[in-house]
Amino acid sequence: MRGIKRVVAALTMLVVVLLVVGFVLENQQSVSLSFFGLSSAQMPISVFVVLALVVGMMIGPLLGVLFRTRRHRGLAAVHL
Predict the structure, then answer these.
(1) For FRET with 68, which of 1, 32, 58, 78 sits at 20 to 30 Å CA-CA?
(2) Where in the sequence is the domain holding 68, given as residue range(s)?
(3) What residues contact 40, with CB distance under 8 A and at least 6 apart?
(4) Does residue 50 contact residue 24 with C-beta atoms inside 8 Å?
(5) How many domains does the chain have?
(6) How much is the pTM?
(7) What is residue 14's predicted lDDT score, i.e. its pLDDT?
(8) Burial class (CB in 10 A: 0-12, 13-18, 19+), 20
C-alpha cells in the first residue's frame, strides 16, 4: 500500500511541476507590480505568480501549526 501512495504522490508532484513549467513558458509578458506606492522591477508575470505560490506554500503549513497548537492549549486548559 505504501508503494502505491508513493507512486501517486510522485505522479501528482510531476503533474504539478509540469503545470508550473507550462504556466511559466506561456506567461513571459513583462509587468511591474505596484503596491502601497512601492513598485517592482519589470519581470515576467510568471515570476510573480510562482513567487506567490511558493510563499503561500510556506505560510499555509506555518498557520496550520500555529492554530493547531493554540487549539491543543485551549483543550488542555478545559481538561484541568
Answers:
(1) 1
(2) 2-79
(3) 32, 33, 34, 48
(4) yes
(5) 1
(6) 0.55
(7) 95
(8) middle
